[in-house]
Write a structure and sequence with these properties.
mainly beta, Methylamine Dehydrogenase, Chain H, globular, 1 helix
């Protein structure tokens, strides 16, 4: 729901991006500037709310070269929008939705894609992860949580319906993120009350499930740390596991929304603690304060954890947001080249650091792709005019290729699109 809310602002941005002139950037991530033509609101700065991270050096971030290229137009990418992608060690697996429903795609090189049979029923795939047992996909079917497991990303088995996947009465339950655990899988998500307007405030509680095989899920008991919140991403790291999302609390100084980013930690995946709220978990000054902020995804390269998110907005200035931590407990806000007016939905590890993505448009990072060597300083990697109209949703990397999936093109089309570049 949070992703859908903040996307409202991007519709106008992306519609205006077709044919937009390319924007160039010479400033380093430590001194980001708004894109030419962007009209910052009074008091807004080009790096809203960025704070110096404890002990972090201002890394120049990932290099903007080599050049990105788009995968050829092909039948498997028509009538479809891609939202997720992972690298299994043998192939890329993507998930998307279209006129025929939700489906998986696979590719060994990122250029040629095979579209698999659509999933049955009213389904949405919200999370993908790779582990020793294969590939795990999680999401929603109707009003209940759902999951699909595969040893190779080519043949899938759906988890059977069970009480642990359902909500109370008319509540909706969804799995939003998943990671390989110590002995199986761990998924996170949320339970929402029926809602038509301002649905971000309808989140009743964050949810956590564990499974040994990806088919039979145990939902962990309710806890105060999970109340009035939603978990959207999880990773194994820090003190054991780290989950991110959003929750309700007290507005920040000068703010109005109670919705803010949240981080939870767990040693075993069963008992969770919410970290104390802090100022940079809220919308930075100069951005829209109405709908709050949230974390959408988290990734780790081992020594460091990185989370990304956005300021939710419908008509005011939004912003992409990023945070980093060396232990999962103490977090600092990252600095971003052209974060203002942008969005971040996804983050992944890549050769040399991290890639983060989100549909952002010409007033921000045109192609919605940022890179960082350390999660503390971010550089726009996609400002060429060929990215006009592209909505970047997720990224993955093999040892040789970095790849971003989404949809859209300069002509205003909405077919799935894949961009990639060689890294060696």
């Amino acid at each position: 729901m949070y992703r859908h809310l903040i996307t409202l602002a991007s519709v106008a941005l992306l519609a205006a991006s077709a044919g937009a002139p390319a924007t160039s950037f010479a400033a380093s991530p430590s001194t980001p500037t708004a894109s030419p033509g962007a009209s910052a609101s009074p008091g807004a700065s080009a790096s809203p709310g960025a704070s110096a991270s404890p002990g972090a050096s201002a890394s120049p971030g990932a290099s903007a070269s080599p050049a990105w290229r788009q995968a050829p137009v092909q039948a498997s990418l028509t009538d479809l929008q891609l939202h997720l992608v992972v690298w299994t060690g043998a192939r890329f697996i993507a998930a998307g939705s279209g006129t025929a429903g939700s489906t998986f795609l696979d590719s060994s090189d990122g250029l040629t894609w095979h579209r698999q049979a659509p999933l049955e029923g009213d389904t949405a795939v919200e999370g993908l992860a790779v582990g020793p047992a294969g590939v795990m996909a999680v999401g929603q079917r109707g009003t209940r949580a759902a999951s699909w497991t595969s040893t190779d990303g080519l043949t899938w088995m759906a988890a059977p319906d069970a009480p642990s996947l359902r909500g109370v009465s008319r509540d909706t339950v969804s799995m939003r993120g998943v990671t390989a655990g110590a002995s199986g899988w761990l998924a996170v998500g949320q339970e929402d009350a029926p809602c038509q307007v301002d649905c971000d405030s309808a989140a009743l509680r964050a949810l956590v499930w564990t499974s040994g095989d990806g088919l039979r899920w145990k939902r962990e008991p309710r806890a105060q740390a999970l109340a009035n919140a939603a978990m959207t991403g999880v990773v194994r790291g820090g003190p054991g596991y780290v989950a991110v999302g959003r929750g309700s609390g007290v507005p920040a100084t000068g703010g109005t929304s109670t919705i803010h980013a949240m981080v939870w930690t767990s040693a075993d995946g069963r008992s969770w603690s919410a970290l104390a709220d802090q100022a940079d978990f809220h919308p930075p000054q100069g951005t829209d304060q109405t709908f709050g902020a949230g974390m959408s995804a988290v990734a780790t390269d081992g020594p460091r954890l990185v989370a990304v998110g956005s300021v939710a907005t419908q008509d005011g200035p939004g912003s992409a947001l990023a945070w980093w931590s060396s232990d999962g407990v103490t977090w600092a806000e990252g600095e971003g080249d052209r974060f203002l007016f942008g969005q971040l939905f996804s983050v992944t590890t890549a050769p040399g650091g991290f890639l983060a993505t989100g549909p952002s448009g010409p007033d921000s990072c045109l192609g919605g792709i940022w890179g960082s060597s350390d999660g503390a300083a971010w550089l726009c990697l996609a400002d060429d005019r060929s990215f006009a109209g592209f909505s970047a949703y997720a990224a993955a990397a093999s040892p040789d290729v970095e790849l971003v999936v989404g949809f859209g093109d300069p002509s205003g089309g909405s077919a799935a699109a894949v961009w990639l570049r060689n890294v060696r």
